[in-house]
Amino acid sequence: MGNYGKGDTAWFTHDRFGMFIHWGLYSMPARHEWIRHTEEISDGDYRIYFDLFDPDLFDPKAWARAAREAGMKYFVITTKHHEGFCLWDTKYTDYKVTNTPAGRDLLREVVDAFRAEGIRVGFYYSLIDWHHPDFTLDKIHPMRNKISAGEFNKGRDMKRYAKYMRDQVTELLTNYGKIDVLWFDFSYPGENGKGHLDWESEELIRLVRKLQPGIIVDNRLDLPGSGDILTPEQFTPDQGMVDEEGNPAVWEGCQTFSGSWGYFRDETSWKSIKMCIEMLVNHVSRGGNLLMNVGPTSRGYIDARAMERLAGYADWMKYNSRSIYGCGAAPAGFPAPPDCRYTYNPETNRLYLHCFAWPFKHVHLPNLAGKVKYAQLLADGSEIRRREAVNEVHSNLNSTTPDNALTLELPVLLPQGTEVPVIELFLK
After folding, report:
1. Distance of CA 108 to CAs 54, 61, 96, 167, 173, Å?
2. Looking at the domain 340-427, which fold is it?
3. Distance of CA 19 to the CA centre of its chain
4. Tens of pLDDT, residues 225-262
5. Are 409 and 385 in contact (CB under 8 A)?
6. In contact, 20 and 76? CB cutoff 8 Å
7. May I ask the CATH architecture of the domain 10-323?
8. Within the chain, which residue ranges are assigned CATH 3.20.20.80?
9. What is the CA radius of gyration of the chain?
10. Are 121 and 74 in contact (CB under 8 A)?
11. Where in the chain do CATH 2.60.40.1180 domains reside?
12. Class of residue 91 by CB neighbours under 10 A (exposed 0-12, middle 13-18, buried 19+)
């Protein structure tokens, strides 16, 4: 495993929550960001979206405000997705936003808007490029079933393409100030695929580390030792993640509100607000971050379905963010009760009990007898009464406290901000 330098993940593991933004030409057909692949659309037929891209309702300040209110501390935006379209005024291709009716560098406006809200900046950059004249045919290319590789690849040179990527990454890491995260996507080595030799990943990562020391880079370059974070996609690991050597790893799950990343008009599998909050809690309780995605429309606004879920996060985080920021997995020996998750802040020595199902009257916390000096409902700071007398029977409740457990006596009614209730436990 090579030594390619390391990024600064201290802020990352503190902040825990970010916004992913997938925005490009695919927002116009509004049928999935992989539309060129799934519908096998030629470059010529896809051109109509480039010629007409005109986000007249684009308001990056509204995006940034929604992210801040939702409690998101960093963002990652697709500067270029697999379609090859660039959201900035790059010198290395004409396939860029400044040549569309939009006519200006939209990436810069996004960066400025999020920075103004105090949100850290991350760039997604696709290693794949179905538009570039040197990108060769492979198993996921839109033209894979339409033309032979020999015919398609005539005159194409992946070495020139790798140089193109380095030139563009240099622009992105030079012209937009300090960049906190660089999210490459993705490698698929093996037969008829592409991996680190195609991307010239070793040269690419060394360039990144030189241009932006301390930047966090993901693990998708097909180059062991080059990434700072593991990036499980569209699933939540059931426990903390480890690196190639078995040590605890910094990780970030990336998830969507619905089944796609780009704007999908007819998508119906939208997650409930409660499920979205539970996903955040699940990630942090297992020592991970959550990068939650929005796909703005081609007119440049975030649609009502996504805004509703961001508002759900906002309402919950307003009262409960203390259980997320600076928190991670609970110490060993504190198993959470059924339907509950713990997060823990080692600096304040506080344990947070998140109740996915609200028990009636009481909940037993194993191994916490004698270890808690105070308990409160985090949303409003109201005391939660507790008992730890092991064999004391409450005849009216017919309940006892199990050995070594702490029993919390719970209210029936809950105040605002308790879509997922949180109890803050002050440990001795």
Report:
1. 16, 12, 13, 18, 12
2. Immunoglobulin-like (2.60.40)
3. 6
4. 999 999 999 999 999 999 888 889 999 999 999 999 99
5. yes
6. yes
7. Alpha-Beta Barrel (3.20)
8. 10-323
9. 24
10. yes
11. 340-427
12. exposed
